[in-house]
Amino acid sequence: MDYDLNEISQLRIGTDWTEMEIVNGPDVVLNFRGYTPVVLVKAQHQKRVKMLYISASSISKKLEELRIKNNGSFIGLKFRLCKESEDKMAKYILEPLN
Fold first, then answer.
1. Beta-sheet strands, E only, within 1-98
2. Maximum distance among all alpha carbons in the chain?
3. Most CB contacts within 10 A, which of 34, 39, 46, 47?
4. φ and ψ at 16, to 5 degrees?
5. CA dist., res. 86 & res. 49, Å (int)
6. Is 10 helix (H, G, I), strand (E, B) or coil?
7. How far apart are CA 82 and CA 14, in angstroms?
C-alpha cells in the first residue's frame, strides 16, 4: 500500500508502553534538521497509520537487531515502545512482542 507521508501524523511516545507493528518503510522525511528516517506503524488504540521517527539510537539499535532476525525487513516487526522518563532527552525502551 502506498502512503503519502505528508498526510500522516507523528506517533508521540510517552512513558506508557505503546504496542505497534511496522507496516511500511523505512523512508525519510525532511524537517528542520534535514532528512530524518521514519517507519509507518499501526499502533494500539490508533485508527490510522502513524509515522514513527527512528533516528534515536535507543530505537535504531534495537530495531536493527529485530530487522536482522526478520530476514532484513522492517515490515511486520511487532514491538512495544516507551520513554524512560518525561525528560525531553530520555532514552526509549523498545521490547519485541514476537
1. 18-31, 34-43, 50-53, 78-83, 92-96
2. 36
3. 39
4. -90, 145
5. 24
6. strand
7. 6
Cell numbers for 78: 511487532
Give yes or no for a contact between 75 and 22, defined as CB atoms under 8 angstroms apart: yes
Peptide bond into 37 cis (omega under 30): no
Number of domain units in the chain: 1
How is residue 16 written as a grid cell? 506508557
pLDDT tens per residue, range 66-76: 999 999 999 99
Q: Which residues contact 65 (CB under 8 A, 6 or more apart)?
A: none
pTM, full prediction: 0.91
Query: Cα separation of 51 and 28, whole Å?
Result: 10
Q: How many residues does the chain have?
A: 98
The model's pLDDT over 41-85, given as tens digits with 9 standing for 90+, comes to: 999 988 999 999 999 999 999 999 999 999 999 999 999 999 999
15 is written with which cell numbers? 512513558
Q: Is 89 helix (H, G, I), strand (E, B) or coil?
A: coil
